[in-house]
């Protein structure tokens, strides 16, 4: 394990922001989903099974989608209209404690929209980042993309330890809701919400925020068809096999062992868990395999209930909630986990 006084890549700031519109599950069913899924037996029960209570959405499915077919161009235009507004709120919160001129890099991920120059360009312009700020935009990697942002930020601050890097995950899945009457799409549309998660990273010694001790990745190449994202004429369509939770559960123990081994940490020493709530079955099975208590899952269940699965932004929301409400003690260890298309497992080992 690295020395307790080592300067390491550190989350020195975390923030989040959401669209102003919020909808509870009952309202969504009364206004739109009852009509979309009228031919699916027991479809309304899906809203309860997801354990999602409320979600924030850039689009109101009843008004902005309804029974119409909205083209991909309309959806991308809507993305351009919302992403800079909501991501800007999150970045502005980070800059309350960090000067714009100290930002050396900005890294951004989204799987729900594209245009160029990419949104990170306009965020850099808005907040007066240096003209030579390094920008990276990561697209279409799905729910685990926060870790691609994190690892790019790690590379940046390790290489240039006198600078800060800002990471942003901005997802607006509501812009791709489609009235496709299938049980699979009913699950997707009852699970996903919109949010931005953001962080500031810098090289710091203990005491300035969660330090990253190690990261780990595992691609399960034989399961590439179990979770997919496809761009159609009328939006981005996600597929989600019911076998996904069982595959993740079968891999998770070895994954966590490998992650901890990278920093010579005993997995039994992990006290805090920030798990991406890809769905309740995933969380339940992972918790069962790793012997994680209900108390340790409070942040994960809270974010799922109050925001839904917000794709790449979600694990950052979970970490932020965990820090604010669990108040980890100095030196305690934690793990962040997320899962996405591939199937791909991503993790980070933290020292608080």
Automatic annotation (TrEMBL):
GO biological process: polyketide biosynthetic process
Superkingdom of the source species: Bacteria
Protein name, UniProt field: Type III polyketide synthase
Domain Chalcone/stilbene synthase N-terminal: residue ranges: 10-198
A Pfam family hit: Chal_sti_synt_C
Keywords recorded for this protein, A-Z: Transferase
Domain Chalcone/stilbene synthase C-terminal: 222-351
Signal peptide: none
Residue positions of the active site: 143 (acyl-thioester intermediate)
Organism of provenance: Microvirga alba
InterPro entries: Chalcone/stilbene_synt_C, Chalcone/stilbene_synt_N, Polyketide_synthase_type-III, Thiolase-like
Gene Ontology MF: a single term: acyltransferase activity, transferring groups other than amino-acyl groups
Recorded family membership: Belongs to the thiolase-like superfamily. Chalcone/stilbene synthases family.
């Amino acid at each position: 394990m690295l020395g307790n006084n080592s300067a390491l890549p550190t989350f020195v700031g975390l923030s989040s922001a959401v669209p102003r519109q919020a909808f509870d599950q009952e309202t969504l069913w009364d206004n739109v989903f009852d009509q979309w899924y009228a031919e699916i037996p027991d479809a309304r029960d899906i809203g309860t099974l997801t354990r999602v209570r409320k979600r924030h959405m850039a689009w109101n499915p009843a008004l902005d989608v309804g029974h119409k077919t909205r083209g991909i161009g309309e959806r991308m235009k809507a993305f351009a209209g919302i992403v800079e507004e909501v991501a800007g709120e999150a970045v502005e919160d980070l800059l309350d404690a960090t000067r714009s001129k100290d930002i050396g890099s900005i890294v951004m991920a989204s799987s729900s929209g594209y245009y160029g120059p990419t949104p990170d360009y306009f965020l850099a312009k808005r907040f007066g980042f240096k003209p030579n700020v390094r920008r990276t935009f990561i697209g279409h990697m799905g729910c685990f993309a926060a870790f691609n942002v994190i690892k790019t930020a790690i590379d940046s601050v390790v290489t240039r330890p006198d600078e800060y890097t800002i990471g942003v995950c901005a997802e607006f899945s509501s812009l791709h809701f489609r009235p496709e009457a299938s049980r699979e799409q009913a699950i997707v549309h009852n699970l996903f919400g919109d949010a931005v998660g953001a962080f500031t990273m810098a090289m710091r010694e203990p005491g300035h925020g969660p330090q990253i001790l190690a990261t780990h990745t595992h691609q399960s190449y034989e399961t590439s068809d179990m979770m997919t994202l496809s761009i159609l004429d009328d939006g981005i369509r996600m597929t989600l096999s019911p076998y996904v939770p069982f595959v993740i559960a079968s891999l998770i123990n070895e994954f966590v062992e490998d992650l901890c081994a990278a920093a010579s940490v005993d997995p039994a020493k992990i006290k805090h868990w920030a798990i991406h709530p890809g769905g309740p079955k995933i969380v339940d099975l992972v918790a069962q395999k790793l012997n994680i208590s209900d108390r340790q899952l409070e942040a994960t269940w809270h974010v799922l209930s109050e925001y839904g699965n917000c794709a790449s932004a979600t694990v950052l929301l979970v970490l932020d909630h965990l820090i604010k409400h669990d108040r980890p003690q100095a030196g305690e260890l934690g793990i962040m986990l997320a899962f996405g298309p591939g199937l791909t497992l991503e993790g980070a080992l933290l020292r608080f």
